[in-house]
């Protein structure tokens, strides 16, 4: 009886989540573009006394200078280490004293600042934001500590977290010569070269009003907030360095293998993929369903076959990385050294099955419910909404990107999903492989997948 009750409750939850997600739309916003290019998006949300903010500077790791990979990420970390009249300790204390949260981070195409404060402390939140963006301290000692920590974390990962490194090697090899192959973290060699003066120069060249989006949602007066933000940023000059346009990446043809040798490794870690689609791909809903069922959740084709049935791994997944000009699609897993070929062959056979047969019709509703059940809860809080508003502005997308998603998921059918699979997922003849493992034990067998490029895990970079 308890089992039946659980199933009934779970089904009721999924049906409610599905109905809710289909009706989710973004609220109306006030959007203002200042004369210097700063975009301000405001939404009053008075249900709870909180204010959420997301500020985004276009750039990110795609604009890392040649040979200085990890620069954007290092700068993002340094923004938290003191600004204006506050040193690192005083800056952190100002946030903690009011129970707020404020952090900076970088991704491939932007540097972002996220904040979540009580409404009564909104003025402090804006003050700290202005200091971070316009007068960060960027002190030598703080940058040195961040850089050394990043280097040590990368070195440690080569011993204890190879799963996290496999996509870095894979995307670096796939996007050779393209900025989408840049490692967000940089690498040991590039980080060793970066000085505090380099970080300050990068900040001076790439930060400016013409690249800033600020989105605020929550319990505040929109007119007063706009006045405060305008006073703070309307006179911020444009960035001095040109932000180079990112070209659409070209799909890799044929097969190629990057083998990263880690002598004595008990397991092999692999990433197999090719160029995918960008964030504005029209059939996003159908693609998300396909990816969910193929390898985007625990109960997926890859997990079911590689782990549950074959016992070759504890984890297998598929990934969709979508940026402004394109992205990558990949299968990722790991296995014991002596089952490397068996696991890779099985993954390839599942990719062939996906392309040949699509996903099982009886699983489509399950995939829809999974996605819709996760969709609405991501649009509830003020800081979540601010993040969505800033994302749409940064990528030049309109509200329909969110508003139409639930309905598109609900309307997707097997034929449309199969069409998307054939468009996005590569054939097994056109694949890039990145494999970390004991080369002496697997090199000869891996040759059947294509010409091998080899490097050592000890090399201080992620590209051959």
Explain what you see.
Strand 4 and strand 5 form a beta hairpin. The strands form two sheets. This protein has a six-stranded mixed sheet with strand order 1-2-6-3-5-4, with helices on both faces. The protein has a six-stranded mixed sheet with strand order 9-10-8-11-7-12. Residues 1-20 have low confidence and may be disordered. It is built from 18 helices and twelve strands. The chain is an alpha+beta fold. The chain has helices at residues 2-22, 71-79, 88-96, 122-134, 140-160, 162-174, 188-193, 196-206, 222-233, 284-296, 301-309, 340-357, 361-375, 382-395, 400-403, 405-411, 414-424, 439-446; strands at residues 30-33, 39-44, 50-58, 101-106, 110-118, 212-218, 255-261, 267-275, 316-322, 327-336, 431-437, 452-456. The chain folds into two domains: 30-233, Cytochrome Bc1 Complex, Chain A, domain 1 (2-Layer Sandwich), CATH 3.30.830.10; 255-456, Metalloenzyme, LuxS/M16 peptidase-like (Cytochrome Bc1 Complex, Chain A, domain 1), CATH 3.30.830.10.
């Amino acid at each position: 009886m308890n089992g039946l009750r659980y199933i009934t409750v779970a089904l009721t939850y999924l049906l409610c989540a599905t109905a809710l997600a289909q009706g989710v739309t973004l609220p109306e916003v006030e959007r203002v573009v200042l004369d210097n290019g700063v975009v301000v998006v405001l939404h009053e949300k008075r249900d709870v006394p909180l204010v959420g903010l997301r500020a985004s500077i276009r750039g990110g790791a795609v604009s890392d200078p040649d040979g200085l990979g990890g620069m954007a990420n290092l700068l993002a970390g340094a923004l938290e280490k003191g600004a204006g009249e506050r040193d690192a300790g005083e800056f952190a204390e100002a946030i903690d004293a009011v129970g707020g949260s404020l952090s900076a981070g970088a991704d491939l195409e932007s540097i972002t600042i996220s904040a979540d404060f009580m409404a009564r402390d909104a003025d402090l939140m804006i003050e700290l934001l202005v200091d971070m963006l316009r007068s960060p301290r960027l002190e030598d000692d703080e940058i040195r500590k961040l850089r050394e920590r990043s280097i040590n974390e990368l070195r440690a990962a080569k011993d204890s977290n190879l799963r996290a490194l496999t996509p870095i090697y894979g995307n670096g090899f796939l996007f050779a010569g393209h900025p989408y192959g840049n490692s967000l973290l940089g690498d040991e060699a590039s980080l060793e070269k970066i000085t505090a003066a380099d970080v300050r120069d990068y900040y001076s060249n790439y930060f400016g009003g013409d690249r800033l989006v600020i989105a605020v949602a929550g319990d505040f007066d929109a007119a007063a907030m706009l006045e405060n933000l305008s006073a703070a940023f309307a006179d911020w000059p444009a960035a001095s360095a040109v932000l180079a346009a990112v070209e659409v990446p070209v799909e890799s043809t044929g097969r190629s293998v990057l083998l990263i040798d880690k002598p004595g490794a008990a397991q092999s870690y692999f990433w197999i993929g090719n160029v995918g689609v960008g964030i504005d791909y029209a059939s996003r809903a159908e693609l998300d369903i396909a990816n969910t069922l193929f390898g985007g959740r625990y109960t997926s084709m890859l997990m079911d076959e590689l782990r549950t049935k074959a016992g070759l791994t504890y984890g297998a997944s598929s990934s969709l990385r979508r940026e402004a000009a394109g992205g990558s699609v990949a299968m990722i897993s790991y296995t014991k050294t002596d089952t490397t070929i068996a696991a890779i062959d099985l993954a390839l056979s599942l990719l062939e099955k996906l392309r040949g047969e699509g996903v099982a019709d009886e699983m489509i509703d399950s995939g829809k419910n999974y996605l819709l059940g996760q969709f609405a809860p991501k649009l509830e809080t003020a800081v979540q909404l601010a993040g969505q508003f800033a994302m749409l502005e940064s990528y030049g997308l309109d509200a329909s990107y969110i508003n139409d998603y639930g309905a598109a998921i609900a309307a997707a059918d097997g034929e449309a999903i199969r069409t998307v699979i054939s468009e996005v997922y590569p054939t097994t003849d056109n694949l890039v492989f990145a494999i970390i493992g004991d080369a002496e034990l697997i090199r000869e067998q891996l040759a059947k997948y294509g010409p091998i490029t080899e490097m050592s895990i000890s090399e201080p970079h992620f590209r051959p």
